[in-house]
Write a structure and sequence with these properties.
The chain contains eight helices and 28 strands. It is α+β, with helices and mostly antiparallel strands and about 475 residues long. The protein folds into five domains: about 90 residues, Membrane-bound Lytic Murein Transglycosylase D, Chain A (Roll), CATH 3.10.350.10; about 45 residues, Membrane-bound Lytic Murein Transglycosylase D, Chain A (Roll); about 45 residues, Roll (Membrane-bound Lytic Murein Transglycosylase D, Chain A), CATH 3.10.350; about 80 residues, Sandwich (Immunoglobulin-like); about 160 residues, Glucose Permease (Domain IIA) (Distorted Sandwich), CATH 2.70.70. Helix 4 packs across helix 5 and helix 6 crosses helix 7. The longest helix is centred in the N-terminal third of the chain and has 16 residues. The structure holds zinc ion (ZN).
């Protein structure tokens, strides 16, 4: 309280002391570092500003600015208005009962509000949103934190021996609706104590035949894999587009899965995702929404290579050989859960690093991850699959590729030995090769790469449970 008063006083004094034109530059002089105690600057609102854009520019938050300036409606600011902008550790100023929430693909403001026992008006006020079009998948907004029990009948714990169907029955709601509200792709995977949101009346009503659609993980990042899962009320053919490319969907236990590789050079920002369900009669229904793609955290490196090795004829022929494999798409899915690390070594070069050769421009990027290891170190299959390439190449050296189904391929370069044959089926954990220093390589290591629908992505993401895959495949 005293703090708020102090801020108000500073503002009042500032207004008295320097009347008239702008005295706070609209360009940020500096952005406070996290953990730094709160300090504040005076900002004069310019055309096009929103509290959100101002908060972002100065490392502050909408609610902190609204509190300090006692704004009842953060969506109403006007050009020329003078605002104190707290920077640094603004969390002491933020209402303690608000939490960040990442907007999901099919979320409407009203759905998020219902799930957090509030109204869409209160949410838009808390976040300084002036239009519902400001909402998109991957955006982080503030929501009031919900204490258990405050939402009447909304958050419930799973009891021992509960199944999703029993919980649904107890609350008189369809099991799919419960599964959707809680983003459960496999209804048999419940654990005691797990908490459910029991969807309310205003739960998202998608256009039939769509029952649900989600994108994981959100927000998306350059160089990552996205899993798009769609549920429909009846058997349909699901197709879609993202980044001007078609998405191939495959059905498994009533869910349609589409895997998308976000290319390292995809523009950061908003991208339109379209999903279509086509009935056997030929009629189709489309849903669409915007997805936020974050910039990846990639470094830069210069590679010094003898000119002969970078002969365009050599690189083109080798790339062509690989490109012929990029459209590979087989069924079924050959993995479940996370992938196994192919060798123990730590990372010596990360995926996505922007690369320039000799004195050239940064036109390339590191298409895989380099793992440390001496020549002869065993390499194991990270998932089951089929050997689809065994080659001795000039740049990639002794090279091996596995197909894991659904357009997921992994590659292993610079090997000393390959322990499998073309066409061979391997199981997760099988010995497939040994680390080496062949091709364009300056020391023994494993270059491990991954393709999703022909797009190079970071395989390290797959070592973590970024999506809860059902067993089998
Ligand atoms: Zn590499």
């Amino acid at each position: 309280m005293g703090r708020r008063l102090a801020f108000a006083l500073v503002l009042a004094l500032a207004l008295l002391a320097v009347p008239g034109p702008l005295w706070a530059s609209s360009t940020p002089s500096r952005v406070a570092q996290p953990g730094e105690p709160a300090s504040e600057i005076l900002y004069v609102v310019e055309p096009g500003d929103t509290l959100f854009s101002i908060a972002q520019r100065y490392g502050s938050t909408v609610s902190a600015i609204a509190r300090v300036n006692r704004l009842d409606d953060p969506s109403r600011i006007y050009v020329g208005q003078r605002l104190m902008v707290p920077m640094g550790d603004v969390h002491g100023i933020d209402p303690p009962d608000s939490l960040p929430y990442v907007v999901q693909f099919t979320d409407r403001l009203v759905d998020i509000a219902v799930r957090h026992a509030t109204t869409w008006r209160a949410l838009s006020q808390l976040n300084g949103m002036v239009s519902p079009h400001g909402l998109y998948a991957g955006k982080t907004i503030q929501v009031p934190s919900t204490e258990e029990g405050r939402l009447e009948g909304a958050l419930r714990s799973v009891e021992p021996h509960d199944t999703l169907f029993r919980v649904a029955l107890r609350h008189d709601i369809p099991p799919w609706s419960l599964a959707f509200a809680n983003r459960i792709s496999n209804p048999t995977l419940l654990y005691p104590g797990q908490r459910f949101v029991i969807p309310g009346e205003a739960e998202r009503a998608l256009q039939p035949p769509f029952l649900s659609a989600s994108v994981d993980p959100l927000p998306a990042s350059q160089g990552e894999t996205l899993v798009i899962s769609v549920r429909a009320a009846r058997p349909v053919t699901v197709t879609g587009e993202l980044f001007d490319r078609g998405i191939r969907f495959l059905e498994e236990d009533g869910l349609y899965y589409g895997l998308v590789g976000v290319h390292v050079f995809t523009d950061p920002g908003l991208h339109e995702l379209r999903i279509r369900a086509t009935e056997s009669s030929g009629s189709s229904t489309e849903m669409s929404g915007r997805l936020l793609v974050h910039e990846g955290q990639f470094g830069y490196e210069r590679i010094h290579a003898p000119p002969g090795l970078l002969d365009p004829a050599v690189t083109a022929a080798e790339n062509e050989l690989l490109n012929a494999l990029r459209p590979t798409f087989t069924e079924p899915r050959r993995w479940s859960g996370t992938l196994q690390r192919p060798c123990e070594g730590s990372i010596s070069s990360h995926f996505g690093t922007r690369r320039a050769y000799n004195d050239g421009p940064y036109r390339g990027y590191h298409g895989g991850v380099d793992l440390r290891g001496s020549t002869g170190t065993p390499v194991y299959a990270p998932a089951s699959g089929t050997v689809v390439m065994v080659e001795d190449l000039i740049i990639r050296g002794r090279a091996l590729m596995l197909d894991h189904g659904w357009g997921v391929l992994t590659g292993y370069w610079h090997l000393s030995e390959i322990e499998v044959e073309l066409g061979q089926e391997v199981m997760q954990g099988d010995l497939i090769a040994r680390i080496g220093n062949t091709g364009l390589s300056t020391g023994a290591h494993l270059h491990w790469e991954m393709w999703i629908g022909g797009v190079n992505v970071n395989p390290m993401q797959w070592l973590e449970p970024f999506y809860r895959w059902p067993e089998g495949g």
